[in-house]
Amino acid sequence: MPSQLSYSDLASLMKRCAGLTVDPELMRTRPDSTFEEYGLDSLGLLAIVGELENQYGTPVEPGAESSKTPGDFLDVVNTSLTTGA
Amino acid sequence: MNATVETTSRARKHIRGAAITGMGIVAPNGVGTDAFWKGVREGITFLDRLTREGCEDSPLRIAGQVRGFEPGSVVEERYLVQTDRFTHFAMTAAELALDDARLPRKDMSPYAVGVVTASGSGGGEFGQRELQQLWGKGPRYVGPYQSIAWFYAASTGQISIRGGFKGPCGVVANDEAGGLDALAHACRSIRHGADAIVVGAAEAPLAPYSVVCQLGYEEMSLARDAGRAYLPFTADACGFAPGEGGAMLIVEEEGAALRRGARVRGRILGHGATFTGPSMWERSREGLAQAIRVALDEAECAPEEIDVVFADALGTPEADRAEALAIADALGAHGTRVPVTAPKTGFGRAYCAAPVLDVASAVLAMEHRVVPPTPYVTDVCHDLDLVTGSSRACGARTALVLSRGLMGCNAALVLRGPEGDM
């Protein structure tokens, strides 16, 4: 069973998929800050979802790719991982 | 004819002229105008064995490659991951050009600045990588940035996004001549009210997939020796060597540029474009001559005022003959006396970027009062005064840049130096 996605994992994905350097602590303390503030556009988020689905070998719940904030995104993804397991 | 000239003269009084105030270059002979010009002026040769990964067994042996390029030193990684090498070149050149022009971006309305680029093939390297994912691993492994990175419009879009330029933007998807057409497009935008346009072209046609696509061009040289690969206007002409890189210019409304104290490096006075069909080089004589006439007419420039010609120099006997005859047709007896040069033989023909690099060379040649040579070329077999060997002192004030494309377009551009007005 895949482990839960952390802010640190999300920061690594943002780096790898979208070339963005983001402090995971900043996202953790401000889960309602927006992806837009970090420079992540919709294609970048789509790339992250695709990468996660390939890693986990299972689809992420629809809606993850339209999340506006890191907090919402982790909620959807981690719920998806729990129910999918 | 007189009526036409009078109309044009009247119109010109109200025309917002286009001044070149900044240039940025990424080419096989260096990054930045200084490095580029050093190579061009000295006629240093940069063609060599194509060594890009995956091209080792290609029938294409000789090309002009940009080596040691570090886009990350100028452009942020977030733009680099979602763009192809051709856009890395374009974004880097654009940033260098903006710096060179010292464009006061903070004081300008974002709607006053636009972006225009020309592209002949889009992003082949990025596209190849994603297609390999598609066929190697499956559709789920194709990244979403493929949707934008390969596209001809990618460089215009990304330069616009990164710079916050929301004025008139455009893309010319065309063969080589498109590089000059993009400059004409920028001049029209200036005429219609834009204050500045970031304009030019960059190409990255040396990824394996892109090279395979070009193998169908019978005009491309498959010579094995760099010294024999690209020899236009000679009896040994055997096609052209492809190159990569490009140039971006800042074109501003001349009055506004002068008022803000910008350094005007050159002015674009006239452009002409025609179409005579792919690989119908004999017919390009008529088309190119007509493009020259249209450009001269728009520039209100007599043939005798042209001080230097930057030739298209395709490098096949038929195409070279057509170009030499077109110059003679359009410039008359002056065509056999005016210095002609083709610096691109030293670093390859970078499709849409080739004529933009020639425009940059022309501006630099007028600034430095020399005509750079045509590297590798020695014995010219056409009735042209081709500058070979080393650069020639020449206080040129007005330059003519020519371009023809493999798909049949012909274009001409008339440029004048900053203090060359009549």
Automatic annotation (TrEMBL), chain A:
<dbReference type="Pfam" id="PF00550">
    <property type="entry name" value="PP-binding"/>
</dbReference>
<keyword id="KW-0596">Phosphopantetheine</keyword>
<dbReference type="InterPro" id="IPR006162">
    <property type="entry name" value="Ppantetheine_attach_site"/>
</dbReference>
<dbReference type="InterPro" id="IPR036736">
    <property type="entry name" value="ACP-like_sf"/>
</dbReference>
<dbReference type="InterPro" id="IPR009081">
    <property type="entry name" value="PP-bd_ACP"/>
</dbReference>
<feature type="domain" description="Carrier">
    <location>
        <begin position="4"/>
        <end position="85"/>
    </location>
</feature>
<keyword id="KW-0597">Phosphoprotein</keyword>
<protein>
    <submittedName>
        <fullName>Curamycin polyketide synthase acyl carrier protein (ACP)</fullName>
    </submittedName>
</protein>
TrEMBL record, chain B:
<dbReference type="InterPro" id="IPR014031">
    <property type="entry name" value="Ketoacyl_synth_C"/>
</dbReference>
<keyword id="KW-0808">Transferase</keyword>
<dbReference type="GO" id="GO:0006633">
    <property type="term" value="P:fatty acid biosynthetic process"/>
</dbReference>
<keyword id="KW-0012">Acyltransferase</keyword>
<dbReference type="InterPro" id="IPR000794">
    <property type="entry name" value="Beta-ketoacyl_synthase"/>
</dbReference>
<dbReference type="InterPro" id="IPR020841">
    <property type="entry name" value="PKS_Beta-ketoAc_synthase_dom"/>
</dbReference>
<protein>
    <submittedName>
        <fullName>Putative polyketide beta-ketoacyl synthase 2</fullName>
    </submittedName>
</protein>
<dbReference type="Pfam" id="PF02801">
    <property type="entry name" value="Ketoacyl-synt_C"/>
</dbReference>
<dbReference type="GO" id="GO:0004315">
    <property type="term" value="F:3-oxoacyl-[acyl-carrier-protein] synthase activity"/>
</dbReference>
<dbReference type="Pfam" id="PF00109">
    <property type="entry name" value="ketoacyl-synt"/>
</dbReference>
<dbReference type="InterPro" id="IPR014030">
    <property type="entry name" value="Ketoacyl_synth_N"/>
</dbReference>
<comment type="similarity">
    <text>Belongs to the thiolase-like superfamily. Beta-ketoacyl-ACP synthases family.</text>
</comment>
<feature type="domain" description="Ketosynthase family 3 (KS3)">
    <location>
        <begin position="15"/>
        <end position="417"/>
    </location>
</feature>
<dbReference type="InterPro" id="IPR016039">
    <property type="entry name" value="Thiolase-like"/>
</dbReference>
